[in-house]
UniProtKB/TrEMBL annotation:
Domain of life: Bacteria
Gene name as annotated: dps
Family: Belongs to the Dps family.
Domain Ferritin/DPS residue range list: 27-165
Gene source species: Aureimonas populi
PANTHER family linked to this entry: DNA PROTECTION DURING STARVATION PROTEIN, GENERAL STRESS PROTEIN 20U
SUPFAM superfamilies per the UniProt record, alphabetical: Ferritin-like
UniProt-recorded name of the protein: DNA starvation/stationary phase protection protein Dps
Length: 167
C-alpha cells in the first residue's frame, strides 16, 4: 500500500490523484465514525426512552437508527472505493467521531429528542464543511454522497425538533 500524508491507500485504477484520495479517505473516516456513533445513539434512545409519547418516539428513534445504518454503509464503501481502509469497529468509531458521547442515563423523551437533535445538528454542520472540502478537492462524487447524507441528517433534525419547537 502507498503511503500519502497520514492515510495509507490500496492501489486502484481510479484516476483521481493519491493526494486527493488520501484527503477524501481522511474526511470520510471521520464521517464513518460519526455515522456509527449516531446509529447507536439512536438505538440508545430507542431502548431507554420513557414518557407519554413513548410509542411514537420509540419508533422514530428506530427509524433514525435504520437510516443512519444506511449512511454507515454508503460512507464506508465510498471510502474503500477510493483505496482506503474503513475503520468500522466500535473502538475505531469512538476514536474518529466528531460528537460528544451520548449520555447513557437519559430517560425522558424530551431529553432524548433534544440530545439527539444536538447530535444531528453538529453532524449536519460537519457534513456541510465536508461537502465544501470535497468540492475544493475536485471530488464531486464524495461531495454528492455527503450531500445526500446531509439532506437525510437535516430531515432527521427537523423530525426531532418538531416535538419541542411549537413556540
Ligand atoms: Fe427495537
Amino acid at each position: 500500500m502507498a503511503k500519502k500524508s497520514d492515510v495509507t491507500l490500496h492501489p486502484t485504477r481510479n484516476t483521481m490523484s493519491e493526494n486527493t484520495r488520501g484527503a477524501m479517505v481522511g474526511l470520510l473516516q471521520k464521517h464513518l465514525g460519526t455515522a456509527i456513533d449516531v446509529t447507536y445513539a439512536a438505538k440508545q434512545a430507542h431502548w431507554n426512552v420513557k414518557g407519554m409519547n413513548f410509542i411514537a418516539v420509540h419508533k422514530l428513534f428506530d427509524e433514525l437508527h435504520e437510516k443512519a445504518e444506511g449512511y454507515v454503509d454508503e460512507i464506508a464503501e465510498r471510502l474503500t472505493a477510493l483505496g482506503g481502509q474503513a475503520v468500522g469497529t466500535v473502538q475505531g468509531a469512538s476514536a474518529n467521531t466528531i460528537l460528544e458521547p451520548y449520555p447513557t442515563d437519559l430517560v425522558d423523551s424530551e431529553g432524548h429528542l433534544k440530545r439527539l437533535a444536538d447530535h444531528y445538528a453538529n453532524w449536519g454542520a460537519a457534513i456541510r464543511e465536508g461537502i465544501s472540502e470535497a468540492d475544493d478537492a475536485g471530488d464531486d462524487l464524495t461531495a454528492d454522497l455527503l450531500t445526500g447524507v446531509g439532506r437525510g441528517v437535516e430531515e432527521a433534525l427537523y423530525f426531532l425538533e418538531s416535538h419541542f419547537q411549537s413556540k
